[in-house]
Amino acid sequence: MGNWWKEGVVYQVYPRSFYDSNGDGIGDLKGIIQKLDYLKELGVDIIWLNPIYKSPNADNGYDISDYYDIMDEFGTMEDFENLLDEAHKRGIKIIMDLVVNHSSDEHIWFIESRKSKDNPYRDYYIWRKGRGENAPNNWTSFFSGSAWEYDENTDEYYLHLFAVKQPDLNWENENLRKEVYKMMKWWLDKGIDGFRMDVINFISKVDGLPDDEDNKGLVGFKYYANGPRVHEYLQEMNREVLSKYDIMTVGETPGVTPEIGRLYVDNDRNELNMIFQFELMDIDSGKGGKWDVVPWKLTDFKRIMYKWYEGLKEKGWNSVYLNNHDQPRLVSRFGNDKEYRVESAKLLATFIHTWQGTPYIYQGEEIGMTNVAFDSIDDYRDIETINWYNEMLEKGLTPKEILEPIYKKGRDNARTPMQWDDTENAGFTKGIPWIKVNPNYKEINVKKALEDKNSVFYYYKKLIELRKKYPVIVYGDINLLFEDDEKIFAYTRSFEGQNILVLMNFSKDEVEIEIPKKLIESKMEILIGNYEVKDCLQDKVIFKPYEARVYKY
Ligand code: TEU
Ligand code: CA
């Protein structure tokens, strides 16, 4: 099976916010087809589509009511088949989002399951008797409140790690597992090129579903993250499905370390190709979790990424991402979206596209789109944000106090419509957008980017071209330089006699970088820089704020 998923660049499309072709204010599949030439121009190889299956959209498609049909708002199965065909014509692969830790409560399986305790589908979900008036255990949901919902009809509770409308599927049930594998094959036989697997390391829960004694933050996490049978299930999935196709798989696995992560991606274990680790995404989360925003340090950023590089370099492969549909925009979180938006967007892209691992671009990051700050909670759409807002209101916090962390870490930061041009609603829709467009769209949009040769877009395009031209960028070993420095992030990559040097100033100050002698002596050729670079390398170089350079030697 090919290594195309190691050498390729992935572009994540959040269809709801990408492009609306029929004026109903919601992005759709026909809209994506109309923008495939844009993605071809950028040079990406693989599109990861967030869920497009039938869904009541309690959690924007992560609550699936029919795995074999397309969500009404996004179009028809024929539209999907056209999208897949048009993408393949352009040499672009498509991977789908597999959401099988839970379904929608409107899925026929759950409708049947809740009918009676002896219904054939009862055991497709996780039902337990309460403890008197209380839930079966003290676990809490990612979206606030208990992880259990009482169902009067059969006087039992069902487990939902996420929304009430997202009941967890019971992977202990072999029939359920067989249904999942059958559905996966149905999509793979249509010609899709793989799956991103939603919280796939949550599918095995600890027997007995015990109370979590340290009940702070997300209660119960350690009793379902990386559970007792998760590798058994994934090896079965690989045997029954994945091994039969030349595809790519990437598991979303909150709560993994490199040691645990390797168990999912070690090629000899026949499970997955890649995973998304969350250690970097938790770098600015304090003890109170994601909403307890704390400053992050570059030395921690470097330590985490290098630890993951070392952890997987022999027996696995890394994914490299700095944002997605659940995370704030990378230029606002890790860069400087005020005075140095363009420079810091290019700096961060330099890291993502010169580190070892498959790079993931989230829609809009290639034009430097930023976080948003709506005045009122009424402008927000994300269930995680709204539930948390209401929970905090009940605790007596003021709207202003609650909106502050939402501005920094809310998922809607990533879900405002893609900014195509400076016409109304950024050219995303002719109708009323399902969520407001970021007001900065007149300044930040694709049309403007394509007209400016120094735009973030062309910098991403150049980085992608370099990856295709120099195998050292894909496969090169990493040697960290200045690792204790809080402003400079620098390393070399080496592979079969090819070498590159990456120098990045992650600060808003000018810094002087002393280049190691041996690097000066070899004839350096600059490959890319986010400022005009006059000189080649002397032994001491002043780097401007957020300046990045990549040299070949
Ligand atoms: O996210 C899983 C997950 O861990 C999220 O709770 C994420 O860490 C958190 O939202 C960060 O704020 C996946 C999907 O990516 C997410 O969109 C879904 O809401 C969730 O699973 C349930 O399907
Ligand atoms: Ca539409």
Explain the layout of strands and helices.
Elements (H helix, E strand, L loop, with lengths): L3 H4 L2 E4 L15 H6 L1 H7 L3 E4 L3 E2 L11 E5 L6 H13 L3 E6 L9 H6 L13 E2 L19 E4 L4 E4 L14 H15 L5 E4 L32 H11 L7 E5 L5 H8 L8 E3 L8 E2 L2 E5 L4 H15 L6 E2 L9 H4 L7 H14 L3 E5 L20 H12 L4 H11 L36 H5 L5 H14 L1 H5 L1 E5 L6 E8 L2 E8 L5 E4 L2 H5 L3 E5 L10 E4 L4 E5 L1
Parallel strand pairs: 1-2, 1-15, 2-5, 5-9, 9-10, 10-11, 14-15
Antiparallel strand pairs: 3-4, 6-8, 7-8, 12-13, 16-17, 17-18, 18-22, 19-21, 20-22
Helix pairs in contact: 8-9, 11-15, 12-13
The protein binds 1-O-alpha-D-glucopyranosyl-D-fructose (TEU) and calcium ion.
TL;DR?
With about 550 residues, the chain is α/β, with parallel strands linked by helices. The chain has three domains: about 5-105 and about 175-460, Alpha-Beta Barrel (TIM Barrel); about 110-160, Oligo-1,6-glucosidase, domain 2 (Alpha-Beta Complex), CATH 3.90.400.10; about 475-550, Sandwich (Immunoglobulin-like), CATH 2.60.40. It has helices at about 5, 30-35, 35-40, 75-90, 110-115, 175-190, 230-240, 260-265, 300-310, 330-335, 340-355, 385-395, 400-410, 445-450, 455-470, 470-475, 515-520; strands spanning about 10-15, 45-50, 55, 65-70, 95-100, 125-130, 150, 155-160, 195, 250, 275, 285, 290-295, 320, 360, 475-480, 490-495, 500-505, 510-515, 525-530, 540-545, 550.
Main sheet: strand order: 11-10-9-5-2-1-15-14
Tell me the structural class: alpha/beta
> Domains counted in the coordinates: how many?
3
Poorly predicted ranges (pLDDT <50, ≥5 residues)? none
Query: What is the level-2 CATH architecture name of the largest domain?
Result: Alpha-Beta Barrel
